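Below is how a single chain appears once it has passed through the pipeline. First comes the sequence as given, then the structure the pipeline wrote out for it. We keep one example in the README because the format questions we get most often are answered faster by looking than by reading.
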Amino acid sequence: MRRFSYKAKEKDTGKAVKGVIQAENEQTAGHLLVEQGFLPDSIVEEGTGFLGGKGHVTTKDRIMFTRQLSTLIGAGLPLATSLRTVANQTQAKAMKSIIEDILTNVESGKTLYDSFSQYPDVFNGVYLALIRAGEASGTLDLALRRLADQEEKDAAMISKIRGALVYPAIILVVIIAVLAFMMVMVVPQVKNLYEDMGEELPGLTQGLVGLSDFFGNFWWLVLLVLGAIVGAIFYAVKKTPGGRRAMDGFKIHIPIFGGLFRMLYVSRFPRTAEMMLATGVPMLDSVKIAIEAVSNTVVEEEYSKSIEVIKGGKPLSESLEGRNYMLPLVPQMASIGEESGKIDEMLGKAAQVYENELDEKINNISTMIEPILMVIMAGLIGVVVGGTLLPIYSLVNSVAN
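Resulting structure:
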């Protein structure tokens, strides 16, 4: 199907409208517009690419769209009218283009789920499952509101984690900058001083001079090698299953931050399962989608073992018991929910506990890592200072004697 931008007028009111429609050709696009009650003024084919070359959709754009659509549908507006209203209010070109496409599909008789499914890079499996369940149960506004709420929580949590990593990154940059200054400006001066005096450099200083000369002569090679390493890692993580799995395993085992990531993944599972079950998605489908929402292949592989247990007729709580990377509160709360008939509510409470705990860990992360970084910085700078200042003192003493 090709995409056409159009300008038209409503037959009944003469109101000017514009949008995007999908059709086999320009003539078919015109017929579709007439059938929908429009008089076309112009129909122009858009460039290729599912976003029309207009950029990418940010999390903020998606959350705003979801929230607005939920509010309009909840207020009783028809779906097509709600989509058209949101499209007219949206400033982001990429998101606007997608909404217009969705509107075109809905007006041509497709379900909202089918329309959203054309953009898997924008709307993930959790999003699509909730849209399908909301359409089937007549609670689309509620499903959209749940999605917006959860995406806002996820975005805030990710932002906090990134913020916690900023301070260590700044300290590392300062360490590297100080060491680079010492190696480039100070160490060569010590070398020249000893050469002028005809003295032999101490062993530690000789090592620093060797490093200084190497980086001074082959800095381009160092940058090339570092760039190649970073590029290879990026390619492996993005393009190969083994590379992604290795990175995911590294995340959950890295000192200090590993516990942070494990708690993030554990909290995602019950929170997503809660949303699925509360919206009417069957248990097995809810568990499968919740596992995918974890977004860590190592953890997903472990959680996926529970699916066969559930297929065998066992309850969710039993299928999660004793799993690696699964903290004990989740199966315990699931068991209580199974007994009380409120499993979605209990899973939500378990998720809230771990989300609060994760929030506290993030707030404390700078305090935890600060002394470690200070020790590392002091040790590295101490080596460089020892290799530069002590030889100078030694040289001054020998001259004085």
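The first helix runs from residue 26 to 35.

See the next section for the split statistics.
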